[in-house]
Amino acid sequence: MKSISSSNPKDKLIFALDAAGYEEALSWINLLSGHVGMFKVGKELFTSVGPKIIETIKQRESKVFLDLKFHDIPNTVARAAEAAVALNVDMFNVHAAGGSRMMRETVDAVAACAGKRGIKMPVVLAVTVLTSLNNSDLQEIGFEKTTDELVTHLAKLAHLAGMTGVVASPRDIAAIRSACGKDFVIVTPGIRSADEPVKDDQRRTLSAFEAIQSGADYIVVGRPIRNAPGPLTACSRIVDEIACGLASREGT
Ligand code: C5P
Question: What letter does residue 206 receive in the DSSP assignment?
Fold first, then answer.
């Protein structure tokens, strides 16, 4: 099920709305609505501003990815997921490490709640292993698998639990695609231009073209647009790269 997938390249671009407050977020929403497919609202912005930011994005007929990475007992996550459906978000995520039962109860609750409201079911994504964790961090918290093994293991668990897809680093796309099939949605952050050296904290990066060509369904981009001298120009360059990536994928 790829409930909101589209072949329009712009729709595959998710802008990371990593703003500290409402006014800053609003200026990005006003500038980029109609130029990106979705706005990603994370913990910082949602905690400081609340549901008002979702309403603002929706009023401009744009889509919302609520990136709050729920991780709790099944009942709590399922109820939080219903609250996300009530906000009419288009995509949200939970930690796969919450387990199969948590993911299954969440998917069931979301389907029932969306059905009752007569709205489209949002894309429900699993976060596998945070990219900030390496093999020794995993050992420290008691996991025996390597990060690569655990990413694939948790992606399979999410797939079996009925989740729509996963958030995955660029380097994990191929393994997840082969383990979970072509209909499993893969959303990929860590996008940087192939022509410029990486100057920030993202390490295992791919260009928008490479990520889409490798099989990502959506890419999340923040600073390459936010810090560009011309954000709209940067945005349309990325959309062009997505179009080339899609064309190259279809040609193979
Ligand atoms: O600015 P940048 O393009 O790096 O933004 C990427 C966005 O994706 C940020 O909101 C970041 O928190 C998020 N993200 C990430 N890597 C992950 C998961 C999420 O960069 N593994």
Answer: B
Q: Which of 176, 220, 238 to mutate to test the pocket of ligand 1 (most atoms within 8 A of CB)?
A: 220
Of the residues 10, 58, 69, 156, only one is catalytic, namely: 69
What does 124-190 look like in DSSP terms, one character per residue?
EEEE-S-TT--HHHHHHTT--S-HHHHHHHHHHHHHHTT--EEE--GGGHHHHHHHH-TTSEEEE--
DSSP state of 67: E
For β-strands 165-167 and 185-188, DSSP reports them as parallel
Domain membership of residue 228 (yes or no) is yes
Nearest CA to ligand 1 atom 21: 131
Concerning whether 69 is annotated as a catalytic residue, the answer is yes
Q: What is the reported pTM?
A: 0.94
Is 4 part of a structural domain of the chain?
Answer: no
- Total structural domains within the chain: 1
Ligand 1 atom nearest 167 alpha carbon: 18
Domain-embedded: residue 80 = yes
Written as tens digits, the pLDDT of the chain (252 aa) is 444 456 799 999 999 999 999 999 999 999 999 999 999 999 999 999 999 999 999 999 999 999 999 999 999 999 999 999 999 999 999 999 999 999 999 999 999 999 999 999 999 999 999 988 999 999 999 999 999 999 999 999 999 999 999 999 988 999 999 999 999 999 999 999 877 666 677 666 899 999 999 999 999 999 999 999 999 999 999 999 999 999 998 876
Q: Write the CATH number for 98.
A: 3.20.20.70
Residue 145 lies in a domain: yes
